[in-house]
Amino acid sequence: MDEEYEALQRQCITFMMEDPRAIRRALDILWVARALERIGDHAKNICEYVIYMVLGKDIRHLSIEDVEQQLAAARAARTGSGG
To answer: DSSP code of 21?
Structure first.
């Protein structure tokens, strides 16, 4: 989400410089994109909190590959122990 937001921000700035009459529209698009980016951040935080509550694992500073490995290991441990 962050990369997409930054790319859209650059595009809007370019668009505004090329056509100053479009500044209001570009700013509206930027506000919407910012809101969506924040929604993505909040969703990620909720997911991290749920994983912590269910598995007791803090995944906030891990790469996606490490998160997937930890979740797979936790899933294997739960099914391997009969529960």
So the answer is: G
1-29: pLDDT as tens digits:
788 889 999 999 999 999 999 999 999 99
Are 24 and 2 a contacting pair, CB within 8 Å? no
Q: Quick check: helix, strand or coil at residue 19?
A: coil
CA dist 80 and 54 (Å) reads: 17
* Local structure of residue 59 (DSSP, 8 states): -
- Give the sign of the dihedral formed by CA 75, CA 49, CA 46, CA 1: negative
Distance from C-alpha of 33 to C-alpha of 79, rounded to nearest angstrom: 41
36, 29 contact by CB (below 8 A): no
